[in-house]
Amino acid sequence: MAVTLKRDGDFAVLTLDRPEALNALSFAIIGQIGEALDAVAEDRTARALLITGAGDKAFCAGADIKELRSRSLVDQKRGAELGQRVFAKLDDLPIASVALVNGYAFGGGMELALACTFRLASANAKFGLPEVKLGLIPGYGGTQRLPRLVGEGRALEMILSGRTVDAGEAERMNLVNKLIEDDLLEAGKAFASTFTRYSLPVLNFARRAVQRAHDLPLHEGLRVEAELSTLAYRTADAEEGMEAFEQKRKPEFRDA
């Protein structure tokens, strides 16, 4: 299997395990990623998902170009829809996801990182959407997610030039949440621990409210926020949190 899924304490860890090919994405591997994400969703015991690539050269160098040659238009559209559908599973997970970008994150690899809730990067990380150099454009969500993160101008510059962005620039343009100098997996667990100690249902409501902001005008987004905040208020964890605040103690959330 080129994709492995393991538990590490409270966290599910998905690893792209094809280092000899810089963890490039074939359609079969995209399917394996989808199966792993389904398993995480069904398990419901992990408190966050961490995604990384095997080896120290690449998170994921992008699509397997050999598979893209000589495909019919129907097959090409189905391939793009497969990548979009699988990566969209990250939006629907009941837990947040963190991409741990070690080395290259190009093309579909960068699009996978973009689909995660957060992105941490090592000092040698490099990001790019080089499809234009092949006479193509990003097809797994890059044209939609990148502008939402860094703004239309910066996104268009990257997409139309196909240029590579190093880790420092990625952090400055808000593509990366944090640069990591030490062990990336341990740093990812520490980063996720800053929010996983809270109520998972409430964290999920918060993610949903923010995600809807991309799709709705402000007044509609505020309506969604009001509805989700009301649902959060009705949880047992909300009652525990408010009671603990009044009693000046640490709350004991039970994800209920």
UniProtKB/TrEMBL annotation:
Keywords per UniProt: Lyase
InterPro entries named among the record's database cross-references: ClpP/crotonase-like_dom_sf, Enoyl-CoA_hydra/iso, Enoyl-CoA_hydra_C
Pfam families: ECH_1
An individual GO BP term: fatty acid beta-oxidation
Coiled coil regions in record: none
Domain of life: Bacteria
CDD domains, A to Z: crotonase-like (cd06558)
Gene Ontology MF: a single term: hydro-lyase activity
Gene3D superfamilies per the UniProt record, alphabetical: 2-enoyl-CoA Hydratase, Chain A, domain 1, Lyase 2-enoyl-coa Hydratase, Chain A, domain 2
Recorded family membership: Belongs to the enoyl-CoA hydratase/isomerase family.
Name recorded for this polypeptide: Enoyl-CoA hydratase/isomerase family protein
